[in-house]
Amino acid sequence: MRGHFFSKYIPNEIPKGGFDELLKLFLELLNYTSGDANEALSWMNELDKQYHITNDEYGMGDFIEDLKQRGYIDDDQNNKDGFIITAKTEQSIRQSALEEIFGKLKKSGKGQHNTNRSGQGEEKNADRREYEFGDTLDQIDMTASIHNAQINHGISDFTMTERDLEVEEKDYKTITSTVLMIDISHSMILYGEDRITPAKKVAMALAELINKKYPKDTLDIVVFGNDAWPISLKDLPYLQVGPYHTNTYAGLELAVDILRRRKTHNKQIFMITDGKPTCLKENGKYYKNSIGLDRKVVNKTLNMAAQCKRLNIPITTFMIARDAYLQQFVRKFTEINGGKAFYSSLKGLGEYIFEDYIRNRRRTVR
């Protein structure tokens, strides 16, 4: 008989027990607790009370002991009843972020930036040609050029001309230097929305992506509030917002200074922010104005965007805000710099940055 058969709906149970399942939850909670192992474990105890995430054979005490035995946590010397996470856990958090955001990324060989043409680069190939105007000294094969001069002019009276010079072709590789700027002003946790945790996860995933897939690329991370300062990759899990205004100018200034020292052709800045520039530092004093768009702060920030354009440093802004007047500022900022802007939700932030990073690193700046 044709028709439909209805049965009682039985929802999937929350996976219980098992070190691997609990570890995934622990790593996720560490993002929200800024690397505080004790707070993350406390949350897990509460979840266990409400949702029974462990079972009779494997409890939270067993999980904590396994974390210690497997090198994920250590005893905190400053707190006899507390724990701190280890370097292994920090790397696991980055790997987890990469799998979450870039999970569909296909595996490929490390550092593959080859283009389909020859030019200035690192990898030698078998091609040789005569010197042409515009070739640099490091492209000239001096041994072959001297040999040519001896054949063409003899060895008794050594002479070398332009026609004797032989250029060694190399396969061009696009190596990219990126500075990721993260806004840590107070607005990143205002209005009941946690914006700093997704920003941290994106930064960790991007760093892990570069380390695994493009190891010759560089990634520097800059945070900015009232001031701007660089942080290391290992600092990311512990990053928190502060009672800061938004000194976008200082962040861009530091990012440009870092990129000036990078000897690469491709340079770019990714900026994650949710607000407008509201702060400058002049002669050791802070100039602040959070009401509207302060013309003095905005003009100085726009001037820095223009300077980046002159240095061939595009800025991609990921604005986590929908206010019309803020979007108008970002459009002006982007127009002056010649970069790009995405008005992204927190949910799609990682995918946007991944796609733009891959697209930008294929671009060759001479």
* Beta-strand content estimate: 15-25%
Uncertain regions spanning at least 5 consecutive residues: 104-123
What's the number of helices?
A: 10
Overall radius of gyration: 27 Å
CATH architecture descriptor name of the largest domain: 3-Layer(aba) Sandwich
Query: How far apart lie the N and C ends?
Result: 73 Å
| Biggest sheet character | 6 strands, mixed
Count of distinct strands: 13
Shape: globular
- The CATH topology of the largest domain turns out to be Rossmann fold
- Kindly report the spatial arrangement of strands forming the biggest sheet: 8-7-6-9-12-13
3D structure, described in words:
The protein has 366 residues and is of the alpha/beta class. The protein has 3 domains: 19-85; 119-172, no CATH class; 176-361, 3-Layer(aba) Sandwich (Rossmann fold), CATH 3.40.50. It is 38% helix and 20% strand. It contains 10 helices and 13 strands. The protein has helices spanning 19-32, 37-51, 60-69, 87-101, 142-153, 196-213, 248-260, 295-310, 324-337, 349-361, and strands spanning 73-75, 83-85, 114-119, 123-130, 166-173, 176-183, 218-224, 228-231, 266-273, 279-282, 285-288, 315-319, 340-343. A 6-stranded mixed beta sheet has the order 8-7-6-9-12-13, sandwiched between helices. It has a 3-stranded antiparallel beta sheet with strand order 3-5-4. Strands 1-2 form a two-stranded antiparallel ribbon. The chain is globular. The chain starts with 18 loop residues before the first helix and ends in a 5-residue tail after the last helix. Residues 104-123 have low confidence and may be disordered.
